[in-house]
Amino acid sequence: MNISRVLDRYIGRRYDPAAFDCADLAVLLQRDLFDKQIAMPADRARRLAPAAAIERYRAELGRPIERDEIRDGDVVLIRSDFIHIGTLFHVNGAWRVLHNSRSLGGVWLHRLSDLPVLNLFIEGYYRWN
User: Fold this and answer.
1) Average pLDDT over residues 100-125
2) Which domain of life does the UniProt lineage start with (predicted)?
3) At a CB cut-off of 8 Å and minimum separation 6, what does 49 contact?
4) Which CATH number fits the domain 3-40+47-128, given the four candidates 3.90.1720, 1.10.260, 3.30.420, 3.40.960?
């Protein structure tokens, strides 16, 4: 399977705060690519949740893992002025994050190492429960 081609079908989808945000993309990827049924917290904020809410989401998301344990489909919680989630994939020799960004208007694939340039900072890596 050529993972780049698989991910291309998601890149460019529009961000919609009411129906398709970063968490919706993460859930969709788990269902489509990994046959996992994930449910995000029902009370999660659909709009700019404060970074303090990260603590609440951690326990519901999954178990924390170390950077050297990452495998395709694991997720990264990202902190800025809002909570953000992305799905990790190893593509062309580098770890990348597929995420649906409000500020960028849709789904993008970025190198993990490039997130700080976008004012996004890694809060932690997780494997779904």
Assistant:
1) 93
2) Bacteria
3) 82, 83
4) 3.90.1720
